[in-house]
């Protein structure tokens, strides 16, 4: 018999090193969404902030900066979520970047 060294190709995942790396922002995004309430009223939600940040302090600064009301809601699937009154998507993303909480490429803005 002849011994041949043949390598059988296995499933290759090009993103394995990104999944395993502990680099900040490798797979963690901050999602900023707007939800329509009734009529012209809407609600802005911010989720995906790291657990080592105090969401209550961030919320306090957001409320002062944008002159709106808001609260922190505990969700079973998503964890703690910040809710703000009104469409504050652009304002909230600029605030998070200027405060140094997240980088600009870590923010995903959803909505109409």
Automatic annotation (TrEMBL):
The keyword Protein biosynthesis applies. Coiled coil: none annotated. The keyword Ribosomal protein does not apply. GO terms for molecular function: mRNA binding; translation initiation factor activity. It comes from the Eukaryota. GO terms for biological process: regulation of translation. Keywords: Protein biosynthesis, Translation regulation. Residues 30-100 form the SUI1 domain. Probably involved in translation. The gene is LOC113687883. Belongs to the SUI1 family. This is Protein translation factor SUI1 homolog. It comes from Coffea arabica (Arabian coffee).
């Amino acid at each position: 018999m002849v011994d041949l060294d043949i390598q059988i190709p296995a499933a290759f995942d090009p993103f394995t090193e990104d999944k395993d790396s502990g680099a900040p922002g490798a797979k963690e995004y901050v999602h900023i969404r707007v939800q329509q309430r009734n009529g012209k009223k809407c609600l802005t939600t911010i989720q995906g902030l790291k657990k080592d940040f105090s969401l209550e302090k961030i919320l306090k600064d957001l409320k002062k900066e944008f002159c709106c009301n808001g609260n922190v809601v505990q969700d079973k699937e998503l964890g703690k979520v910040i809710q703000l009154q009104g469409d504050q998507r652009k304002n909230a993303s600029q605030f998070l970047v200027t405060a140094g909480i997240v980088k600009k490429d870590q923010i995903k803005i959803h909505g109409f």
